[in-house]
Amino acid sequence: MVYEERKRGMSRGKKDRGLGVLFLVLFLLLLMVLGFVFRQLTGVRVPYDLIPPQATLYRDVALGEGYLLLRESTAKTGASGVATYFADEGQKVQRDYIVANVNVLSDHTEVKDELIKVQAAIDYKNDENPKRSPQFTEEEINTVRNIQRFIRDEDYENLISGINSLELSSARTVSISQLNEYLQKPMKELEEEKEALSRQLATTNSDYRAKEAGMVSFFFDDPRGRLSMDRDPEQFTLENLHNLKLDTMTSGANRVEEGAPFFRIIDNLGYRVAMVIDSYRLIEDYVDGSFTMKFGEGILVPATFVAFNGPEDGPGVAIFELHDQLERIYEKRHYNLTLIKREVSAYTVPTSALIEDAQGNRGVYVERTRGFVSFVPVDILSETNEEAYIRSGNKGTIEREVDGKTVQVATVNSFDRVVKNPEDVPKEQIIFEEEN
What we know:
By secondary structure, the protein is α+β, with helices and mostly antiparallel strands. Helix content is about 25%, strand content about 35%. It has helices at about 1-40, 110-125, 140-155, 155-170, 180-185, 185-200, 240, 325-330; strands at about 50, 55-70, 70-75, 80-85, 90-95, 100-105, 205-210, 215, 220, 250, 255, 260-265, 270-275, 290-295, 300-310, 315-320, 335-350, 355, 360-370, 370-375, 380-385, 385-390, 395-400, 405-410, 420, 430. The strands form seven sheets. A six-stranded antiparallel barrel has the order 2-13-16-15-14-17. A four-stranded antiparallel sheet has the order 3-12-8-5, with no helix packed on it. It has a four-stranded antiparallel sheet with strand order 7-6-4-11, with no helix packed on it. Strand 19 (about 360-370) and strand 20 form a beta hairpin. The longest helix is centred in the N-terminal third of the chain and has 41 residues, at about 1-40.
């Protein structure tokens, strides 16, 4: 009896499990059917590609070549000699800073002869006999001893001074006929002349100082001053710049020659650039504001407009004034330049995404919901065959004229997805087009 009840219980358990599996299968089938019906009722086919707009910075620029116009002064050596330098290339120095020193190696024979005649005239006036005894005096012996000491100590300045003193005090015959000019001068004038000549003989080292504050350079590229900032801006014409040839040389050697360019001091507080551009019309809307000038591959410097030489509708030379970053660019005089007229926050989209609405307004299609799109107006800053720059707008809006009034309308933002090829969008999926 117990066995039969247990058998009946096992039979009922199998039936219950079978019903559970059946209900689960039917439930899954029902979900599949409902999902298919839902997609058929609400889904829209999306046959087009969507891309997000890429945030960037649009720069409206003009390209050209240009030259640095500097305010600079050049120091030249007063005599040949050996130079010692106390400043490096590009170092900023104050006024009167000793940039270099030259140990003079000039021949002072004429100065010595002149000093001997002056001394002889003084001796005659003092009733001294200009013909000296061939015997050395105590003073001359001391001078020789000092010369020996100066040689030992390598004290060349005092050595030369001692030799000069010995030569003047040594026996030497001076004809009275050679002294007529000097004997006519008063004693005071002779003493002053003697002192000046003695100083000249004793000067074996000369300091060369900066005449004004600025940057030191031992590189010369405009010795004739044709690119001087102090020249009238009107002199920088297309013809003059076209015919310009830069003469370059470098100093800084240990041995220097008399009269040669030694170093230059460049005013680093302000400079100008003469830039060749295709037309004044490229910049005329911005001349009252500020520009940014890009040198080479990436040095950016604020610039202000000064003048333009040339016709308004043809090529000419624009002059700009700058104040920063000279230490990074002064070693070159000629540059390929990019003049940035304005910078605007923008997005980039494929040029293929641009369309026009019925009123001729340009814009793009933006996805809204479940495959539907709407027309959104844009301000195009620039476009190429591949890419277009569109203004990001003021808080996501741009200006439009509607019924004679300027209104703000929504434009593309960073969260939108733009249709890459508008021709792929079926007309029934375009739910809105802006009418202005």
